[in-house]
Automatic annotation (TrEMBL):
<keyword id="KW-0238">DNA-binding</keyword>
<dbReference type="GO" id="GO:0080090">
    <property type="term" value="P:regulation of primary metabolic process"/>
</dbReference>
<feature type="compositionally biased region" description="Basic and acidic residues">
    <location>
        <begin position="24"/>
        <end position="35"/>
    </location>
</feature>
<keyword id="KW-0804">Transcription</keyword>
<protein>
    <submittedName>
        <fullName>Transcriptional regulator, AraC family</fullName>
    </submittedName>
</protein>
<keyword id="KW-0805">Transcription regulation</keyword>
<dbReference type="GO" id="GO:0003677">
    <property type="term" value="F:DNA binding"/>
</dbReference>
<feature type="region of interest" description="Disordered">
    <location>
        <begin position="1"/>
        <end position="35"/>
    </location>
</feature>
<dbReference type="InterPro" id="IPR050204">
    <property type="entry name" value="AraC_XylS_family_regulators"/>
</dbReference>
Length: 272
């Protein structure tokens, strides 16, 4: 998303908010405000950012590959990815989540959580900084029952949330009052969506088969067996799965239903 970002203001090193200790905050001193922690770990400034005194806001970042720990933050952070497709890894304690960043996926970092991120390529992402008080208010007003504890999400498919958040960087401009009104309405809408789709018990994913998820496996088989003119080269199949040629061949070998893939023999990973 490199087009108009009129909703958010151009930040500068002088315009970034002061450290959390310099303004009232009821959070522990061990938790930074989201925008401050992101600036620290990403080592750069956002392209655009609209931020309120509470720390709530929206920011558009483009940053280099990341291999570092994101420390606990005093806001929920929701991200919509908009960059090149790439595999990544997130470590939280002894838990490891491996996913594929692509347009249409979201990342949720609940307040107070901390993870190590390993992202090998540059990143283009729009972030929402959501105070827990806002989430609880929206839950009360919408009469949404059940838990309002956000789940940790890593490259989780959610086109609705992704489109809503990405639209924040492309909508409105030249009228600060309208920008603020839009941002407040969008934040409440996103909070409602999060309560519906990203709270409760974690969704149990189907076990993978031979290193390919059932969804990717089915899509690749359908592509190979299709009578259409779709590209069925090894490069195309691997790219669609978000894998390298080698890893795609190695994973597909172990899937019983997967047919012989043209080109895999050349990598030394063909099916017997």
């Amino acid at each position: 998303m490199t087009g108009s970002t009129a909703l958010m203001r151009n930040p500068s090193h002088k315009g970034l908010p002061p450290a959390p200790g310099s303004q009232p905050d009821d959070r522990s001193n061990s938790e930074r405000r989201a925008e401050a922690e992101m600036a620290r770990v990403l080592g750069t400034e956002p392209l655009r950012m609209a931020l309120e005194s509470s720390g709530a806001g929206i920011a558009h970042w483009q940053h280099d590959p990341l291999h570092d720990v994101v420390e606990p933050m005093s806001h929920h952070v929701i991200m919509a990815y908009n960059g090149v497709m790439q595999r990544m890894e997130r470590r939280t304690g002894k838990s490891v989540a491996i996913g594929t960043f692509r347009r249409g996926v979201v990342i949720v970092i609940p307040e107070g959580s901390s993870s190590r991120w390993d992202i090998p390529k540059p990143v283009d992402v729009v972030q929402l900084y959501l105070p827990d008080a806002t989430l609880k208010r929206v839950a009360r007003e919408a009469e949404i029952t059940g838990t309002d504890d956000l789940l940790e999400r890593t490259a989780h498919p959610d086109p609705i949330t992704s489109r809503l958040l990405l639209s924040a960087a492309d909508a409105l401009g030249g009228n600060e009052a309208l920008d603020t009104l839009f941002r407040h309405q969008l934040t409440d809408l996103l909070a409602t969506r999060l309560l519906v789709a990203h709270t409760g018990s974690p969704t149990m994913l189907q076990p993978t088969m031979g290193g390919l998820s059932p969804k990717i496996l089915l899509r690749a088989i359908e592509r190979l067996r299709s009578d259409s003119d779709a590209d069925v080269s090894l490069d195309a199949l691997a790219s669609d799965a978000g894998l390298s040629r080698f890893h795609f061949c190695r994973a597909s070998r172990k899937a019983p239903a997967f047919p012989r893939t043209p080109g895999c023999a050349n990598t030394g990973s063909s099916r017997p």
